[in-house]
Amino acid sequence: MLVQGNFNGDTFADITWANHAIANEWLQVTVLADANTHLASKTVFYFGNLVAATGYSVANSTLYVTPIDVLATLMNLSNSVGITNLYDFNRDGKVNATDLATVILDESFSGLQLITAPS
User: What pTM was estimated for this model as a whole?
Assistant: First the structure.
């Protein structure tokens, strides 16, 4: 589902999909060049569904959920965090046992391969 709107002068689009709909896959999104987007040419980007990857992976060619992500989540347990907190995987405003369970269950050494968007 795509929801579009404006907030403080910025245009946004929320893209949502069913749980597990793109697990272990990349979702390609193409933003068209038109009067609404004010783009000179279309823009292609990708979403990867790898919940609990905090960006601390030691591998450069693959995204993984690693023990480092588990440790970082443990070190950031809190009852009150902002919506953009890296460790609040379910976005409930807390980093707690639910987020810790998420990172532990998603811990893997077979992550998504990084890709290069076509030009």
Answer: 0.58
Q: Report residue 57 as tokens.
A: 């992976």
> What tens digit of pLDDT does each residue of 11-21 get?
777 777 777 67
What does the DSSP 8-state code read for residue 21?
T
- As a whole number of angstroms, the distance between CA 118 and CA 78 comes to 40
Query: Could you read off the pLDDT of 30-50 as tens digits, one per residue?
Result: 888 988 888 899 888 777 767
* 102: DSSP letter: H
Distances (CA, A) of 31 to 35, 46, 51: 12, 11, 24
Residue 34: in which H helix or E strand, if any?
A: none
CB atoms under 10 Å from CB of 64, counted, come to 21
How far apart, in whole angstroms, are the C-alpha atoms of residue 55 and residue 69? 8
DSSP state of 9: T
